[in-house]
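Spend some time on this chain, tokens included, and walk me through the fold:

. . .
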Amino acid sequence: MSKVTILKHPLIDHKLAIIRDKKTGSKDFRETVSEIGMLITYEISRDFKTVEVEVDTPIAKTTCRMLEKPVVIVPILRAGLGMVNGIHNIIPQAKIGHIGIYRDEETLQPHEYFAKFPKDIKESTVLLVDPMLATGGSAEASITMLKKRGVTDIRFVGIVGCPEGIQKLQEAHPDVDIYLAALDEKLNKNSYIVPGLGDAGDRLFGTK
């Protein structure tokens, strides 16, 4: 079974309070989501494998360590875009792919409408990002899309999740570790996380 990590840090807790607040406007919401993405990158990258390399310092040759594999950040559109810049600030050499998934309003089933990835994604560590892990449908479908393209090293990176979404993702993809800043109580009848933070996409882009 995959590992679930709930990140506890005073700065993350502080910023979570900001994005949960319904009075927070799009600008502050967008900036804070990006900042949370940056803070959690240290944890999600903790076990990245490294290799030895020899470099010339201004004084002498020395042996250092660098990442063994390329990193690809893959946001699930739209809301996943809000986390990309924060993660990219810490891993600036990372490439960026995109997955477009929409959820049928009646069946709640996910459907793909866009997919674009770097050529070397099969050899990369992929960070699949979406602020919300609610029903888990979009994340499950996105991971399936990545695996069909030969990706084997995938981590789901979110901000707020719930037990229903975690269970669905673990059952469908037990090899994909899950990283969240908060684990909330449940889903409501409209499949929103409770207490959650509302519709992350709408709040990021001011579309409601």
User: Anything to note?
Assistant: The helical segments are 10-20, 26-44, 81-90, 137-148, 163-172, 200-205. The longest strand covers residues 50-56. The chain has a mean pLDDT of 94.
